[in-house]
Each structure stands twice: as structure tokens, then as C-alpha cells.
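Handout, section B. The chain below has 146 residues.
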Amino acid sequence: MPLPTMFLEYDPAKVTVVFRGVPILGFSDGTMVSAERDEDAFTKKTGTQGDVTRVKNLNRGGAVSINLLSGSPTNTLLSALALADETDGSGKGELRIADLNGNTLLHAGIAWIKKLPKIEYADDESGREWMFDCAAIDTFTVGGST
């Protein structure tokens, strides 16, 4: 009897990113978004006789990177938010990433732009990488396709 075959579909247009209620538009080719927690959830401590203790890390902070085309109108919005944050602290807000192809979801109630992206110009589209810090990623569900 043959083994069952798995068939999945993925549409990058169904990955949504929203910062402070505003949809992020104009992703560059390649990796659009990446996210990870700052630290491991647990560390292991081993005593001199081999006894092991698992220590829970309460840090739920994380980092998110978003890659946009250099011509994306979202760059202007994010620049204004970053500069406002530097001026008076008003640029922070909620960050949400959802993969509507399935059930992957990331939510951070307080996120901010870490720094303005590097600017490059070349004979091809070079894009802009926006890096965000998150005080706590309170929802981090790595799901599959539905």
C-alpha cells in the first residue's frame, strides 16, 4: 500500500504584518519577515555529581526583522515613527504577524523600531531592513498550514 502524500500550498501574500494598527506593505523578495525570542525558554544547570536542574527563563522579549522594497510607502511611515520615538517616546506600539495560510501567529503588545535601517543604492533594488525589539512576545504560535 502506498504511503499517503501530503500536499500543501503557500501564498506569501497571506502573511500579514501590522504595526500600531497600520498594515506593512511592499515586502522585498527573499525573506520578508523573521522573528525570534531573545533567549532560550530554559537553561540547564548541571552539578558536579551530574544532577540537573532546569531553570525557567522569564524573559519573553524578542526581535523581529522586516524587509521592505526601498520604494515601499511603509518606509516613510516607519521613519516617522522611529524619529518620533527618538524625540518623545511615542513610536512604540503593538506588533502583530499572522500567516493566514495556516495558524502561525506572533503578537507583541509593546514593540519599537530598534534603529533606522541602513540605506544602500546600487544597480539593483537593495531594500530596507527594519529591526524591531519587543518587550514581550506574548503570543508566539508556530503553526502549520490549514
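Note. The beta strands are 15-19, 22-23, 33-37, 42-46, 52-56, 62-68, 93-99, 104-115, 128-134, 137-141. Compare this with the example in section A.
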